[in-house]
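explain this:
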Amino acid sequence: MTADEFRALALSLPEAVEIGHMGHPDFRVRKKIFATLGYPDDAHGMIKLMPEQQSLFVEREPKVFSPSKGKWGLSGSTLVYLPAAKAKSVRQALAMGWRLVAPAALAARL
């Protein structure tokens, strides 16, 4: 998967927008971040998940998904190694991250 493919999947979610944050593109729904690109390097994206969701993705695809370092990772911040990622898994993880931050009424639409 390329960064542009990750971007397209993130922006396909309802009301998702791209904004810059700390020198990296991020993806938000109603001002709340659910994913970023380019951290810790250009080969990665990050998706905000619940720790339980993160565990499932890491267990299922350890070459693609890994916890971010430190407390962010313990809270569910999940790195995505883009060169090894497949659209189906990333789409599923992005939808979960989007649901975490989207208002309930909007999340019900997905």
In short: Residues 3-107 form a domain with the Aspartate Aminotransferase, domain 1 fold (CATH 3.90.1150.30). The first helix runs from residue 3 to 11.
